[in-house]
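Hi everyone, sorry if this is the wrong subforum. Our group has a chain we'd like a structural model of before ordering constructs, and none of us has done structure prediction before. Sequence below.
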Amino acid sequence: MNLSRDLFDRARAAIAGGVNSPVRAFRAVGGDPIFFDSAKGSRLRDVDGREYIDYVCSWGPLILGHADPRVVEAVREQVGHGSSFGAPTRVEVELAESLTAALPAMERVRMVNSGTEATLSAVRLARGFTRRNGIVKMEGCYHGHVDALLVQAGSGVATLSIPGSPGIPEAVTAQTFLLPYNDAQAARDFLRERGTEIAAVIVEPVAGNMGVVPPRNGYLEALRAETRRAGALLIFDEVITGFRLAYGGVQTMTGIEPDLTCMGKVIGGGFPVGAYGGRAEVMAMVAPDGPVYQAGTLSGNPVAMRAGLTTLQVLRDTENAYDRLDQLGARLENGLKEAAREAGARAQVARRGSMLTVFFTDAAVSDWTGAAACDTEMYGKYFRSMIKQGIYLPPAQYETFFVSLAHSESDIDETVNAARTAFRACAR
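Answer:
Right subforum, don't worry. Here is the predicted structure as tokens:
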């Protein structure tokens, strides 16, 4: 009996593609998707009763692990009071205050329902504030399925070899300019030549949608300096990195303050959420105070707000939470590197904090060109071996592994032992 396969057959008859997000279909790694029934801590259980150590963590939000009792109790209490009002609530104010207190550059914030909504809204706001149309994005950076940004977007788009997407008119992307990630000189040259046309530069300050690719020394500083020179806004897409790499995000680690920040994932504690915010004078352009319109029936949903607020409170109050995450990430990184070396596998391991990727390539990856050269078939082979051994990894080469506070040293060691077998299979 294979209940996951049966459910996928049913899903394909009722759901487009059988899944509600393309990467879940497992087409990048082969085989049928796994349907899950329950989870606790670092472990998932599928509908057939098999258990897995989870490194997807709902694609990053579950930094405390699955079904953390503090989040569960807070959500249960909130649902008892009401799940949605379509009106202001205390908890959305409290979460907004937590965000603005943690992020000095976020003087005002607006809640939305996803990272895609956050980036879409930030781009619209940047255009309205600057009265310019041009947007610069980096090759391999994914900012949600926003029409104007779905160009060389890495992540699931690259996994499926879609060069953008049908249904997006050329006119929509005509004002989107592509630059290589991690190339400060390319950004400098472009913005000094055409900066007066540009409303904003949007970037993942640590790329997490072509695998984990940290910024080179001086790269983010160059973007900050050149956007200021050009009169353009700098948008940090911290949907993945926000409260994942530090309490706040990459900007609190580096001291580099963007004009606008997009967030999601961790700030919702596993519930649908997004947020964008920044300088007060820029956010003053958002309706009802200003002319840039953005709205959402479920924006600021109290259940999502309560889950997110509780998650941030736990992170803030847990002593050395981020040191612990970094230590677990380092243990996994070092173990995987050693396992790959022992097996003679052509693999690189990239990490920043509790985010990690195994790249099947000979060279370190620092941009989309390097990521695109990876052996995706070999990753699929590695993935399938790990799944058989009870380790659930992202079902695509260009995604990120996530470690949570619920993971233990024994989880990491079990994963490394499984990787030894998987790397040996990949080295043959």
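For your construct planning: The two ends are 32 Å apart (CA to CA). The first strand starts at residue 36 and ends at 40.
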